[in-house]
Amino acid sequence: MSSTSIPSKFDVAVVGAGPAGSATAYLLAKKGFKVLLVERGRGLGDKQLFGGRVYAQPLREVWPELDKEAPIQRWVTRERVSLVSGDKALTLEFKGGERKSFTALLPQLVAWMQRKAEQAGAIFATEATVDEIMFKDGKAVGIRSGNDVVYADVTVDAEGVNRLLLERAGIVPRLSPDHIALGVKEVLRTGSSQLEAAFGIGSDEGVAWVVVGDVTRGVPGGGFIYTNKDTVSIGVVIHLKHAINAIESGQLNNHVYELVEGFRLHPYFRNLWHGATISEYGGHLTIEGGLSFAPKRLVYPGLLVVGDAAGLLLSTGINYRGVDYAVYSGKLAAEAIEYAASHGGLTYDNLLEYERKVKDSFMYRDLVRHRAVEMLMNDPTMFSKLAEVFIGLFSQMFEQDYSVPTPYEAFTGALTEHNMSLNKLMSYMITAVRGL
Amino acid sequence: MSATVQATNKQSPEPKPMKLEDILQSDVWNVDEEPHIVVDYSKCEKCPTKPCIYLCPAGCYTLAGNRVVFSYEGCVECGTCRVICPMDAITWNYPKSGHGIMYRFT
After folding, report:
1. Residue A190 near residue A166 (C-beta atoms within 8 A)
2. A323 Cβ contact list (under 8 Å, min separation 6)
3. A431-435: long-range contacts (C-beta < 8 A, 24 or more apart)?
4. A238: nearest Cα among A196, A182, A164
5. What is the ipTM of this complex?
6. Phi first, then psi: what are they for A284, rounded to 5°?
7. What is the C-alpha to C-alpha distance for residues A161 and A289, in angstroms, rounded to an integer?
8. Which residues of chain A neighbour B79 with C-beta distances below 8 Å?
9. Residue B4 pLDDT more than 50?
10. Which of A180, A247, A265 lies nearest to residue B54, judging by beta carbons?
11. What percent of chain A has pLDDT over 90?
């Protein structure tokens, strides 16, 4: 951020050019606001990592040209959910066909969003790590990166899950493992024809696949698989609080990368990417229980918080929505700033419109409705036990020598085999069904 | 019989996990001269569990005997170590001026 090339006063300074920040900057620049979008990476989406799937409709509200222009890898036409126990697996597949969600490589998708913001007239400052949000008399007045200072009427914090700036400002406490999970990902290059043959899909199809059970060695979390054009994104997500407990108790004595490798080489999955090379590896934190992670307010004098930093990410164990939530919160922030400007100025009272909009949105409603998932995620035994019992049931039903068990025998056999009482299973199921 | 088994084994050998250092060869960094993370080793000495050894996805924290050794160069900037450190031994910043990991496909 060189002080010679960049003016020192803006209407809005947006910190972080991920999905949330880029959408905010794009919409405000389009409306004629003087916007600075600041990014610590090189402006190629090069700090971006996610699981692999984006829900399209909230993005279309910002970029109606999304379907035609965005770097979409594959539209998701098939949803698969697998329970895994040891080498055994139980898989359910749903074949849809609507263009509801797509797979993407986040660096490419975000680079597209960044270019949109720049083309709309936002000043895009790259390779600039913001050190602090500056406050004067309790109001945010701008940002500082090294010796460079930029003033703005409103600062939009889109710094992501790792909220160094909000922590430094005393707005949120230090990041705690309680509401945080770690995702570790491998991108496997297989080639498109091998990929389509292995997954049993056409060239215009894509798979989103959630895996529950043994892949995370009993630590609550799970695995994911997303098909790109000629690569497959795979990874595991583990709840950090439980990972720490599992290390302390000696249950987890593997390096976390070994979990991903165990998943890549799992006998049920490995033939899907046989012979593939790893073309990229990485890790990123994600939010479990967005509402508990959210700052007390989303609006402070001169400051709006959007995207992951605002806790706006839904994680139900089956559905993960982060990029679309981020973009949509950026849209609401931009609309609120526009509203404030046309209602007497960018005052705190006027900017509170953003908080009202978030609370009225599908995001907030869903985060409230899915709150029980937190309870679910907080019982470490439940995941592995449920997977074991269901796998056990199907094993009893299908793995036979002579005698065919009745469904009742298979069911009670599976329960006995895994030391599970019917009462306990029912209470788990009720929690699970309520939670999901 | 044993020949058949051998032949089968030859066709599909049990695949082995790669080493983390080999997996990390697929990534690209623009390494800063200054470390963006500083570890207070005096606190690590008193740490009973050292979860960083297991949970840093880039394996930046390793053990030399019983001592923690940290190297910042291969960091993927996820922030896990700062969140899990029970001793509050880690001063964590993002790299400056576009340095650090450069993802392309994730």
Report:
1. no
2. A19, A50, A54, A55, A59, A104, A106, A109
3. A431/A372, A431/A375, A431/A376, A431/A379, A431/A382, A432/A376, A432/A382, A432/A386, A434/A372, A435/A316, A435/A317, A435/A370, A435/A372, A435/A373, A435/A375, A435/A376
4. A182
5. 0.92
6. -155, 145
7. 12
8. 161-162, 175, 285
9. no
10. A247
11. 78
CB contact under 8 A, A182 and B80: yes
pLDDT at B6 over 90: no
- Nearest partner of A322 among A306, A336, A335, judged by Cα: A306
Q: Quote the Cα angle for A346-A175-B40, to 5°.
A: 125
Which residue intervals of A265-322 are DSSP H helices?
Answer: 290-293
Residue B7: pLDDT band with limits 50, 70, 90:
very low
Burial track A74-90 (b if 16+ CB lie within 10 A, e otherwise): bbbbbbbbbbbbeebbb
**CA atoms of A121 and A124, how far apart (whole Å):** 9
Q: What is the pLDDT of residues A389-404, one digit of tens each?
A: 889 999 999 999 999 9
pTM of the model: 0.94
Tens of pLDDT, residue by residue over A402-412, are 999 998 999 89
* Residues in chain A within 8 Å Cβ distance of B77: 47
Instruction: Report helix, strand and coil shares of chain A as percent, to nearest 5.
Output: 40, 25, 35
Residue A39 in this model has a pLDDT that exceeds 60: yes
For A259, which residue in chain B has the nearest alpha carbon? B17
Which residues neighbour B32 within 8 Å (Cβ) at sequence distance 6 or greater? B95, B96, B97, B99, B100
